[in-house]
Amino acid sequence: ELENLSDVPFSGDEENGGSEERKTEINGNWIPATSITEAKINAKAKRRLRKNSSRDSGRGDSVSENGETLKIGVVVPTSPKGKLLDRRSRSGKGRGLPKKGGAGGKGVWGTPGQVYDVEEVDIKDPNYDDDQENCVYETVVLPLDERAFEKTLTPIIQEYFEHGDTNEVSEMLKGLNLGEMKYSVPVLAVSLALEGKASHREMTSKLISDLCGTVVSKTDVEKSFDRLLKELPELVLDSPKAPQV
């Protein structure tokens, strides 16, 4: 029968040059030849894509589904990690600008030039205290000890020898808490004047006179000269003419 079929003349459709699409039987199913060709082309393209991706994996690159090369370490904006760093709106609206001009986050200073109003005290606050409204805060200046006293007043007196303004010295001494060291002001001034010029000794005399009654009392001045007389043997070591002066 097969030999007889080979001698049978072609039908009208076959004479037309194969106008109908040829079909191939695969696993009992007739599939058009064009579908098989497309499947082969797609399979060949996938193999080439996998080959390129495995070749580029050693260089730190990867190939996406669209065939685009991606660098490892670059976060794709569509990934969840990229969305965390994305400042655009989740709803797709907006221009990606920070909220409230950058002054809407927690712990920020606010926009430049912004002036905050005085916060009103809430009476219903559990931590509210009636006495806190009548509190008067003052700056407490600790009294100077002997070492800090000499270190602080020495440059003040030396500058006085340059400008000669007793009022400036008086204002500076009033800003200090001299405490029990008030009587040491004339002692230090005379000790520095003994090491200086005759003009410095004259300026020191004027300074003690102007400070008496404002910064130091007469009792403090008397106590200071008593101490100078007791320390005279030590003063002679630095100023041999200290007794006569």
From TrEMBL:
SUPFAM superfamilies (alphabetical): ARM repeat
Q: Where is the signal peptide?
A: none
Compartmental location: Cytoplasm; Nucleus
Compositional bias (Gly residues) = 99-110
**What InterPro entries has UniProt attached to this entry?**
ARM-type_fold, Initiation_fac_eIF4g_MI, PDCD4
User: One GO molecular-function annotation for this sequence?
Assistant: RNA binding
Coiled-coil ranges per UniProt: none
- Name of the featured protein: Programmed cell death protein 4
Q: Where is the MI domain positioned along the sequence?
A: 148-245
GO:BP terms for this protein?
Answer: negative regulation of DNA-templated transcription
What single Pfam family name could you report for this chain, choosing any that match? MA3
**What's this protein's family per the entry?**
Belongs to the PDCD4 family.
Q: Where is the composition biased (Basic residues)?
A: 43-52
One GO cellular component from the entry? nucleus
Region annotation (Disordered) ranges: 1-111
Going by the UniProt record, its keywords in alphabetical order are: Cytoplasm, Nucleus, Repeat, RNA-binding
